[in-house]
Write a structure and sequence with these properties.
mainly beta; 101 residues
Length: 101
């Protein structure tokens, strides 16, 4: 959804997102890999620099939620399993140039 002002376009964006997260426990040496699902929201603005060129800047916040990652903490003797909750978020800012043909 966006709004046009003269040669500028201001917009908001949102959607679903996913990330494959690898977690590493240093001792005992074990890792866990899970796919986290979440959402993304953002906003941006594009400027028409010339008839065929657009410049834009955009900011996005992504929240991939939390998930339990199991780790084998037994050291091979007692068969214990430890679960850790991993929460993942990201904030990105990007600049872009578009060319029309």
């Amino acid at each position: 959804m966006g709004k046009v002002y003269d040669n500028r376009l201001a917009y908001v964006t949102s959607g679903l997102t996913s990330a494959k997260i690898d977690s590493l426990m240093m001792w005992p040496n074990d890792h866990s890999r899970k796919t986290h699902l979440g959402f993304m929201i953002g906003a941006g603005v594009e400027f028409e620099v010339s008839e065929k060129t657009l410049f834009g800047i955009e900011s996005k916040y992504s929240d991939f939620g939390s998930a339990l990652h199991p780790f084998d903490t037994s050291c091979g003797f007692c068969g214990q399993c430890d679960e850790r909750t991993i929460e993942v978020t990201a904030h990105t800012i990007s600049a872009k140039v578009n060319f029309r043909f």
